[in-house]
Amino acid sequence: MQVLKQFRKSMRRDRQFGFMWSLEDLDLDLSHGVVLYVENLRVGFDGFKAIDDLDLYVDAGELRCLIGPNGAGKTTLMDIITGRTRPDCGSVFFGMEIDLLRLSESEIARVGIGRKFQQPTVFEHHLVYENLELAMAVDKRVFPTLFARLSGEQRDRIDEVLGIVGLEAQAYRAAGSLSHGQKQWLEIGMLLMQDPYLLLVDEPVTGMTHQEMERTAELLTSLAGRHSLLVVEHDMDFVRSIARRVTVLHQGRVLAEGTMDQIQEDPRVVEVYLGE
Question: Are 93 and 99 spatial neighbours (Cβ–Cβ below 8 Å)?
């Protein structure tokens, strides 16, 4: 009996060797209501501590804003979550069981995490509709791609995403002809085509008009619930318009966390960030 118990213990997912499991084995466990667990995270570059003993928890379906001065560790944190940077120590879990530090960048994207960078990256010479088609989470190997034909369900999904990001009228325009704000929405739509549960969004309103900022706020808040979002932004008016909870980073650590009102009244935050 003792031998059997030891065998079962050794076969737990967090005890298995890399060659013994595949992505198909990984299920997003949200039973505790948390989608992202970051604990005791540290990473340094040439003696500089970019992340220093950082703990962060994001709830399932939450829209969390991440703010802080330049060099606070915001981009490094996103790089770690998406597999671009490996930490010196700590843990990063997607749900209860998916250890992101064991996965590559492409595997992390496949398990349900999407990232949007500050500058929109779209296929400018392709139509908006084609951009969404190219972003679809389908078999991208050569032969399946050559002979692929959109199903009715896939066309419906593209139409649905066009509606979500407000680009129905631009569906058959070249992506390069869109305004800056529209390109940002298209890239968010391209992420949605992959149906990620967690979206990391980096400074989405930089360079936008006031009207485009309002539309972006409506878009991101509409996604919360079905998706979880971690949004990095410097525009405090925009943060106030979307945030229910804000995390402030400073020198690689969490300086403060709470509602926007609580953050703006925190003297530490005013001193190192809001008072700039």
Answer: yes
Q: Which CATH number among 3.40.640.10, 3.40.50.300, 3.30.565.10, 3.40.50.1820 corresponds to the domain 29-274?
A: 3.40.50.300
Is 134 a residue whose pLDDT tops 50?
yes
Residue 207's contacts (CB-CB under 8 Å, 6 or more residues apart) are 180
pLDDT digits (tens, 9 = 90+) for 169-215: 999 999 999 999 999 999 999 999 999 999 999 999 988 999 999 99
Q: Which residues contact 187 (CB under 8 A, 6 or more apart)?
A: 116, 120, 121, 122
Q: Tell me the C-alpha to C-alpha distance, in Å, between residue 98 and each of 2, 91, 92, 158.
A: 28, 11, 9, 29
Mapping DSSP onto H, E and C, the string for 52-105 reads EEEEEEEECCCEEEEECCCCCCHHHHHHHHCCCCCCCEEEEEECCCEEHHHCCH
Nearest to 112 by CA among 96, 129, 95: 95
Block residue for tokens 């529209």: 182
DSSP state of 13: G
Which tokens belong to 105? 């960048």
User: From the centroid of its chain, how far is CA 128?
Assistant: 22
Query: Where in the chain are the domains?
Result: 29-274
Please say whether the dihedral angle defined by the alpha carbons of residues 134, 139, 145 and 150, taken in this order, is positive or negative. Answer: negative
Task: Give yes or no for residue 18 having a pLDDT over 60.
Answer: no
How far is the C-alpha of 167 from the C-alpha of 5, rounded, in Å?
Answer: 56
Q: For residue 8, what is the enclosing H or E element?
A: helix 2-10
DSSP classification of residue 195: -
Both tokens assigned to 124? 């400018």
